[in-house]
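Example 5.3 — Peptide deformylase
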Amino acid sequence: MILPIVAYGDPVLKKKGKDITKEYPKLDTLLDNMFETMYNAYGVGLAAPQIGLPIRLFLVDTTPFAEDEDLTAEEQKKLKDFKRVFINAKITKEEGDEWAFNEGCLSIPDVREDVFRQPKITVEYVDENFKPHTEVFDGLIARVIQHEYDHIEGILFTDKLSSLKKRLIKGRLTNISKGKISVDYRMRFPDQKKKR
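Solution (predicted structure tokens):
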């Protein structure tokens, strides 16, 4: 089932998510719905707060990035079929010199800005079967994970922008929160409490 994506301005996007246990109700169905919702909106990641749930759960599928012809064959291979569920994730280490990448967010449609992040991360998490993992990721995969991880920490990519950039996009963000935007996927807007 395709779920509405919560728009910028909804308080759930600013809440720090809570850990969940394997007894979380209908987790398999939730994960299926989240993947379906993400693919319907042409996203490469989706966090539970973006569908209104303040829990520490996000998923990533970087396959669309593998089609980028500017990447090396090795980078394309890594991105192709990288599909993962992260539950109760914790980034324990970030390494390397920060690099800029133009990021967007399904909760903030039509706003894209350069965000600086470190290229290499170590993440502890459990998968959909609650099997624990500690893994190191780098490049675009690390970037997508960092973006989604921020969601479960109550942080949006716009929070990482300079005050000048924030002032420049303020009007667009206000319009998003009021539902004054056209998108081709279902959204829930905080000021209107209606779905589109």
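Remark. The chain has a mean pLDDT of 94.
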